[in-house]
Amino acid sequence: MAKEHKLIKEIRAAVYTRVSSDRQIEGFSLEAQEDLLMQEIGKRGWVFHELYTDPGESGGNLDRPGVQKLIKDMKDHKFDALIIHKLDRLTRNMGDLYFLIDLINKLDIRLIINGYSEQIDTKSTMGKIFIYMTGIFAEIYLDNLREEIYKGLSKRAAKGLRSNPNAPYGYENGDNLKLILKEEEATVVRQMYAWRIEGWGRNKIARNLNSRGITSKTGVQWSEKMIDSVLGNLTYTGAAHWKKADDPEEKRIIVRDMHEAIVDIETFEQVQKIKERVRDGFMSTSPYDFPFSTIVKCAICGRSYNGKMSKYKETIYHGYRCNGKGRASMNCEASEITESKLVKLLMARIDVISDASLDVDKVIEPTKIDVEKERKRITKKMADSKERRMKWAKAMGDNKMSYDEYSMLIDGDQAQLAQLQKELDQLPEKNVSKGNRKEIVDRLLHIRNEWDNMSNVERKRSLAMMFNRIVIGKINNVWKILAYELNE
After folding, report:
1. Are 104 and 82 in contact (CB under 8 A)?
2. Coiled coil: which residue ranges (predicted)?
3. Which of 94, 137, 352, 356 is the 20 to 30 A CA-CA neighbour of 289?
């Protein structure tokens, strides 16, 4: 009987090589790796498919052209085996290692690692164990390498030296990356800060620069994000600074006066203050036609008053309307108020606060309450409410209380909680201390004395920097400022 002959499939073998820099020690160069791996293909009698290589690339991730083409061709079943010199040529990252090994096994690709005293073959159990263990050590090595790099960057930053080869807009690099001022660009940076202080938004600044044909450092048009980066970069104050990307801001290393400043620290901090107040909702990003918009709050519902323009016999009138008015959920009954009336109320309040003959403790707040004590009282009541509701829910779950009883208690408690929240929202957050009274009075007097000379932009900016909120309402049908919170 004739013997059966099985067809032997030719094994197509791919080769992958990598070095992290052009300068490698003897025996680990691209050429040396390729020679050893090609010899292995010859010994096994396999067919060479293709060489995949990544010269001068790190093994920290798979974002490399050579390895990406390798993965694509692997998925397209263009080869049957992959030969590498050592595992760290393929990757030093444990997550990437698991991905690659899993892919290799799913596609039934044979991985041969040639550069150890005993050759590793992924088809064996011991081979798989070795690969995973080696990968762990490779990742530890990479973590240690990163840590050493961070240590070096930290030491350099502590000396006020920069490590970023890209000079920010307004500067160019000198020796040892020291920043040298570029006056033409520096003028634009100063203008950005001036516009922001005047009340311009980031989008408006970007549009203005783009319309003038002023491009960024890389020659592209300005965006809000790019403007924000300039307005928040401490470098423009003459400081060198650095921190790890995932570290909190408190860990930033700052060394002052390392290069010529474009803006002074006071201007920089003023812009940061504006940014914080916009972020926290104390300063409107809306148009500046209405200086009191969003700063004035309603005593009835707590919502903001927004500007409203009307026209009568060719005359334009500015007024303000509570944002809660006309809402389906709660139609606030607060009346509208004219801007001229608001100005009179504000000036009268400034006169009271700035009257040196009055005891400061008597003009702190019109409500004459201990703000912190009142806040603690309300907060405790709200906490007690939460604890009560948890106990009631547990009692109902244990069948110690009926649903009807639970529902009745919850409804009553919810109404009380809503009232407490309203009281807390309307409570001024800060009192004026005797120590900072003079500074506050000076700022308020500046608003009163210069009001008629200010533009609406300047008025809104001054109010926003002075007050977090001004609460208004009617008592006996007369408008009054019932409370206010100063931005100290």
Report:
1. yes
2. 368-430
3. 352
CA atoms 140, 243, 166, 257: torsion sign: negative
Tokens representing residue 485 in the block:
């919170």
C-alpha distances (whole Å) from 182 to each of 158, 240, 245, 371, 376 are: 25, 17, 28, 51, 54
Q: Which of 109, 110, 262 is nearest to 179 (CA)?
A: 262
Q: How far apart are CA 15 and CA 51, in angstroms?
A: 5
| Listed residue (12, 108, 100) closest to 61, CA to CA | 100
Chunked into runs of 10 residues, the chain (488 residues) has average pLDDT values of: 55 91 58 89 92 87 92 94 88 79 84 77 73 69 74 83 87 90 93 86 88 90 90 91 81 88 90 76 55 85 81 76 71 86 91 64 45 70 74 72 74 75 62 60 87 84 82 86 78
CA distances, 304 to each of 167, 283, 325, 335 (Å)? 43, 12, 10, 13
Q: Domains for the chain: give ranges and CATH numbers.
A: 12-142 (3.40.50.1390), 171-279 (3.90.1750.20), 296-367+428-486 (no CATH)
Q: How far is CA 30 from the centre of its chain?
A: 42
Helix (H) or strand (E) run with residue 305 in it: strand 305-312
In 3D space, the residue among 366, 361, 382 whose CA is nearest the CA of residue 425 turns out to be 382
Rounded Cα distance, 467 and 456, in Å = 16
